[in-house]
Amino acid sequence: MNRLFRCCVIIYLGGTLSLVSSWSSTPTSPHHRGFSVSRLSATVSREDENDIRFNNANSLSNEKIDASSLMLNRRSLLLGSGVAATVGAVSALTRSPAQAATTTTAAATTTAPIPQWTLRGGVKMPVLAINTVGLSADETEHAVSLALQYGITHIDFHPGKERDGVAKYLASNKRSDLFLNTKIRKAPPGTSPKEAADRARNQIAEDLAALNVPNVDMLMLRDSPDAEVIQSQWAVLEDALEKGQTKSIGVVNYCQFSLQSVLQTAKVKPALNYYLNHVGMGLDPKGLRSYGESRGIKTFAYGAVGEPGPNPELLEKFSIGQIAKSHGVSPEAVALRWVLQTGAAASVRPTLQFGLGTSVCSTDNKKCEDGVKARAASFSWQLTKAEMTELNSLTSPNDNPTLFASAGCPDSFVLPKTKKP
Q1: Is 116 helix (H, G, I), strand (E, B) or coil?
Q2: Closest CA to 23 of 14, 11, 32
Q3: Which of 80, 359, 376, 412 is a good FRET partner for 129, with 20 to 30 A between their CA atoms?
Q4: Integer Cα distance of 211 and 201 in angstroms
Q5: Could you tell me if 376 and 370 are in contact, meaning their C-beta atoms sit under 8 angstroms apart?
Q6: What pLDDT digit, counting tens, does each position of 320-354 carry?
Q7: Secondary element (H or E) of residue 140
Q8: Which of 125, 187, 112 is CA-nearest to residue 156?
Q9: CA-to-CA distance for 271 and 288, rounded, in angstroms?
Q10: What is the pTM of this model?
């Protein structure tokens, strides 16, 4: 204890003398008597920092902060620093190696908060979602639990078994913890506008009852080759918005024709358009992004690593591999970060174990947990301006953004025919 006390005294006196010397040798102009806030930039919250980065993704530049309201008395700050140095030294000397290792590990695994968009009516939408498509009810429940564990609150799910998995999670957890985002089923070909409207209305009631909640945070409408069907169903979503059954409304896989159809009669514009986007498709795939965003419709992207399954051409690109290596992350992390850094929101599968209508989030191993954890860390790092320029310039794989649209949109996906045995 005597040794510890002597050490602390030496550190404190040395630190204080150094600080006093620094103060006495500094010019006494008013400018030098203040402490520039640029020296305190580390005190800006990580959430604010990421909001700045996200909102200025294309320029990749951080805005300067006005220091006038944050000037500090330098003498007080410096003397306070001497005390802090002493306390830090005591802490370092008294901590056990195990405690020090725990602290280091905790710092290394901390992830930055996920930024949010503010939609119509002040609705806050996290820009990163876990996509449960193809999961069983049990796997969906597990994926939701993991997502919350690592800070992802936006759950992008489909009606049916995925919805039932979300319901299982909600049965023993708080509704307020989640941003619930689901979709209206596509009306079968030949459905009349009135029948399509009834189907949408009935599904909303069915889903809310199954989830045992009064509302969801987002309802997204699938497209139709029939403009009148789109318009009749959109009117149902607007009605649900007015009744408080949903907090916001958007569209899924809408090409220019579909967007024109909904906008012709819409009282409320879609908050977003949910479509395929990944490296190789460029910043404005088929002109869809500029068309929608110029009309106030945000881009919500799925398929950062390809669809309907992981695309080897994308993930095995030399440039993506080199960038991943330089940041100590995986190629899929680079692919996801690119989407987010272009200013789009993203919905991502929990692992690379997925295909057409299938996905895996098993409780038998840690693959799903590791995948969710890695995706949650997407805002803990960023691509450089040069890396973004390189990825923006790639022209393959150049997929169709509305791949899973109806026949009303060009080059829509057609299920391969299965041979009869």
Answers
A1: strand
A2: 32
A3: 412
A4: 16
A5: no
A6: 999 999 999 999 999 999 999 999 999 999 999 99
A7: helix 137-149
A8: 125
A9: 15
A10: 0.75
Structure tokens at 312: 């080897």
Q: Tokens 């995925």 belong to which residue?
A: 162
Longest CA span, the chain: 91
Band (pLDDT 50/70/90 cuts) for residue 418 is low
Return left, alpha or beta for 373; rule: phi > 0 is left, psi -120 to 50 is alpha, else beta.
alpha
Instruction: Please write the tens of the pLDDT for every residue from 153-184.
Output: 999 999 999 999 999 999 999 999 999 999 99
User: How far apart are the C-alpha atoms of 384 and 392, rounded to whole Å?
Assistant: 12
Are the beta carbons of 146 and 350 closer than 8 angstroms?
yes
| DSSP per-residue codes, 149-200 | HTT--EEE--TTHHHHHHHHHHTTS-GGG-EEEEEEPPPPTT--HHHHHHHH
In the block, tokens 């460029």 appear at 282
Rounded to the nearest 10°, the torsion over CA 382, 354, 109, 111 is: 50
Residue of 411, 132, 124, 117 lying closest to 253 (CA atoms): 411
The beta strands (E) that lie in 288-396 are given as 298-302, 345-348, 354-355, 358-359
* Helix, strand, or coil (residue 355): strand
DSSP per position, 71-105: --BHHHHHHHHHHHHHHHHHHHHHS-HHHHHHHHH
Rounded to an integer, what distance in angstroms lies between the CA atom of residue 258 and that of residue 223?
Answer: 7
In this structure, are residues 294 and 377 in contact, taking their beta carbons and an 8 Å threshold?
no
- Amino acid letter, residue 333: A
Specify whether the CB–CB gap between 238 and 268 falls below 8 A: yes
Question: What SS3 state is found at 267?
Answer: coil
